Amino acid sequence: MKTTRWLWYWLAACSLLSTVVLLTGLGMVLNDLKAVPAVSETKPSPSAPSETTSEERVSLGNFKEIRIVALGDSLTKGTGDATGKGYVRQVVDGLKKEFDKPVQLLNNLALNGMQTSQLGERLSNDSGYQYAVKSANLILFSIGGNDLFLSARARMEKKEWAMLGMDELEQDMEETLGRFRSIIDQLYELNPSAKIVYMGLYNPFYDLDNLRIASLNMQQWNKEAYAVIHPYPNMMMVPTFDLFEGRIGEYLSSDHFHPNHEGYKRIAGRMLEALD
Amino acid sequence: MRKLPALVQNEVLKLWLKKRFVVIVLILFILIPIFTYAEHKVVSNHREHFADWRNQILQQIADLENTLSSDRIPEEWKRSRRVAVQQLQYYLNHDINPSEPSGVQFSREFLSNSITLFIPMLVLAMGSDIVSGERTTGTIKMLLTRPVKRWKILLSKLCALTLYVSLTIAVTVILCYLISGFVFGYGGWITPVLTGFRMEGAVIDSSSVHTVPQWRFLLMQAGLCWFSAMIVAVLGLMVSVLIRSTAASLVTMMSAIIAGTILSSMSSSWRSAKYLFSVNLGLTGYLEGTPPPIEGMTLPFSLIILAMWGAAGLFVSFRVFTKGDILN
């Protein structure tokens, strides 16, 4: 009888105590519901490590470790690659083999369907994007394809490609180029010491007779984009248009727009060849 | 009135001697290490792939956004993912790590995952035969022939149940902290946590978002857990009064609760389901800011609905228990 009495005291004490504590918690919730404190809108921009070697030539060989961030549209995301690697992961794998130092893919922030306007907005407003760009020392990106494709498709609803007034398309391209220029400026401003690689565009419709001519527009874009990138010594552009002209069946995925694993492998191979 | 404490003591000891509580502690002792191990795997996987938590959150946002552009994903899922994106973005903008692994963080996670199903189950395991068990064994006649009012007997059972509900939740939190702390460390008490997200459709209203220290957040969660567990206990008591067979009353309550979790995941198409008690059990989601199972549900709404169910349950059980005939 004595033990049960002690048991009862213990049980009662513990359970009453926990009831009181839990009721306090519930009270806090109710209290919290009433009070609507002002949010302190502090935006501490996290200081990211970046090697300030803007004076000397940017070369991967000089980095202690390679930290990669990928930005842009579905080409960077790797859409169409059944293995999910895209060119980004294949570049990472290639760099791992080539360099005897740690290689890490920090982020692949590419979004399907991203356009220049969206990327520009994120780079200027999204502190997360800025953090990623600042903390990388190799940035791979692709952009512009969706802008051009959508502008062409909107015009095409009305007429054949060959009949398209080139000036209409050129006007769209001018605007896209303006946004591209500001993206490049922002990237340089955020991280002048990183190696930045831009993937040139290709014409996925080269094998369609009536759309083959679009390659000329594509080339014009590549030329203009190269002119934008050229002044920056830490940036480079890797052309891809020639890969897909003869071998569309082999290198494009079933959506006839994105490369497949083999296609991405060739793109990655080009980048690896160009990166020093 | 002097008899009530003695009656409560009697009920508490009866429940103790049935060894239910020991079983619950044993279950927790087996489950928590398993979840700790799983969480440990997740954490070490993240450590391997990401330089720091900001990169991890960024990647999470990018992945969520990529699924948003797919037409294959149903609109309701997109709604919750959009909310998740905004929330992660908010954490990122304020430089707060939403899930820094620690003992306290694990307990918090465990509570929020177990409030809709696991804790109600534990409560039912304890209390679903509190009246019907006496009928099955026949001891109810002994109890009711004593010179004690019937409502006092039921009240003492309710008090005993309340004490055990509190004890269960307290033990759950303490065991979570002690066991997972062994792996993740015993810190994390003052880590800031964001709370107060309000949903308007797929958009987060962040005007009332504020940070609370994690210990306070955990305490608030435990309080909410206690509340929803108490409602389950009261309803279990009612079913136990109404249905003579213990097995049947257990099954009734369990199926009601499981139906709630299924309805929550189907959501939206049947909007008046939000008046069912089991859809409202996931109270901790409101603190974290996960979208409610059905649009338009808020924390006060759920609290009121649950309180009404609880009050109705109490009314029915006392009414039936004091007025009903004891046959068999």
Automatic annotation (TrEMBL), chain A:
Residues 70-266 form the SGNH hydrolase-type esterase domain. GO terms for molecular function: phosphatidylcholine lysophospholipase activity. Keywords: Membrane, Transmembrane, Transmembrane helix. The keyword Membrane applies. It holds the Pfam family Lipase_GDSL_2. The chain crosses the membrane at residues 7-30. It comes from the Bacteria. InterPro entries: Ester_Hydrolysis_Enzymes, SGNH_hydro, SGNH_hydro_sf. This is GDSL family lipase. It comes from Paenibacillus paeoniae.
From TrEMBL, chain B:
GO terms for molecular function: ABC-type transporter activity. Keywords: Membrane, Transmembrane, Transmembrane helix. The chain crosses the membrane at residues 21-38, 110-132, 153-186, 218-243, 250-270, 301-321. The keyword Transmembrane helix applies. This is ABC transporter permease. GO terms for cellular component: plasma membrane.
